[in-house]
Write a structure and sequence with these properties.
The chain has two domains: about 30 residues; about 170 residues, Glutaredoxin (3-Layer(aba) Sandwich), CATH 3.40.30.10. Helix content is about 30%, strand content about 20%. It has five helices and ten strands, in the order αββββαβαβαβββαβ. Pfam families: AhpC-TSA (PF00578).
Length: about 210
Amino acid sequence: MITKNNKMKICLLISMVLCLGMNFQSGGYQIGDAVGNFRLKNTDGNMVSLGDYSNVKGVIVIFTSNHCPFARAYEDRIIALNSKFASQGFPVIAINPSDPGTHQDDTFEKMKERSSSKNYGYPYLVDDSQQVAKMFGVGRTPQVYVLQKVGAKFTVRYMGMIDDNPQDPGGVTKLYVDEAVSNLAGGKPVVTTITKPVGCAIKWKN
């Protein structure tokens, strides 16, 4: 039989677990934060860092993966974002934080094959240690961070979904990333700054 005292202990334990969960989810960069530099290996074998992007207005950082159906559904839309906005000073940087030990489709060789076959046109970086994903506070793939270059720093202006319809590109009604970058490129503030990402949960390495 559960006593009143035990009930209180159980409720407290549940509250602590929930708080820990909320703290974990709220970790990483928030809107207005300056992003630290990172350096990761690209599928062409070269190392790419955020610091390499000195002559841009900003970047569209997209955490994605090969195995995730949501990421695959967005692949052509990511390519289209780069085609549209790279020339306006906002290129795409794609980062794969997925553990290939859990998903074989996310090995570096598979990443190279995918980037080559789809002719991405932007870096596809491997986050082997998952430290960059943790630095950003990423929870799912795909998950986007639109960064604006302010002086020498990159500042978070948008984070979340690419648009509001992962399954059907033809059914999209809200182009979150497109609108955010268009506003920044036009010297206007971002209206919708945060949305909840929908995709595959990242499996963290021990």
